[in-house]
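REVIEWER CHECKLIST
Item 1: Sequence provided? yes
Item 2: Single chain? yes
Item 3: Sequence as submitted:
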Amino acid sequence: MIEVKGITKRYGSTTAVRDLTFTVRPGRVTGFLGPNGSGKSTTLRMILGLHAPTSGTVTVDGRSFGGLPRGLRHVGALLDAHDVHGGRSARAQLMALARSNRIPAGRVDEVLAEVGLTAVAGRRIGGYSLGMKQRLGIAAALLGDPPVLLFDEPLNGLDPEGVRWVRELFRRLADEGRTVFVSSHLMSEMEHTADDLIVIGRGELIAAQSLAEFAARGTRRHVTVRTPRPDALVDLLTAAGASVTSYGERLEVTGLDAPDVARVALDHRILLHHLSTENASLERAFMELTADSAQYVGADLPSADLPSAGLPSADLVPADVSPADLTSGDPR
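Item 4: Structure as written out by the authors:
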């Protein structure tokens, strides 16, 4: 369990985190969300004792992480996949970590197999793609078989197979009773992965609740309509008591359900090209509830013009690595 109680972190006149309190429970995958500059990375570093809070306390299973001997046996973390010695091999990197934490050497080969890097374990990390470095970082986090695991943007650089594998790995770790805390900006993945959410903005807590409860805080169900006569339909639906937002030929309607919208259109001989009911989504809730906390905001676009949330880019494979070297190893 991770317990954060009233932590504040100041850097000179800048307050990165302000009076933040939350609990990350075992047996759950907890997503950690927030706009850029919200204080997520600073908070993770305070949990790991890399930064000291200006005030407040952070404990892991009731103790400060800095006071835990052989830390990898208690907490495994991936904060930055690039934070490795590029001249070492993956096996040498993990062996050094194992020796410093009195972890049996045999555990190194176990985690290399689990993350699918056995075939390239003897190659220098400097030649790894980002996705391969992410797998190595996950292996390092798993090395001490810890009860608590923290991951900062673990899906960056992974191909679709890697994303699926990580999703299943996090689920298995939580089902084993471990505490799994995952910082990510990928709303689509959090919908598939997280049980609970901690959401912060400008260093302050916005929400600490289940994923379903958080998604329900956003705009609830609405009806999406496409018609070549949007202006006429807007007037009719508004007269019928609906609230309508227009994006050209696409309308978002609240206050009436889909059959009622269809009936209004039929009664007035208005052609519909599309009619559907849209449920609340995590992405919509996140955008609405963090709108005032975003540090960098671009120009507004109708949601139909926005690119869909996709998977991270695929691994870029170095020229000296064959496809056979990249077998992904099923999580156990």
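Item 5: Key structural point noted by reviewer: Residues 172 and 273 are 44 Å apart (CA to CA).
Item 6: Recommendation: ____
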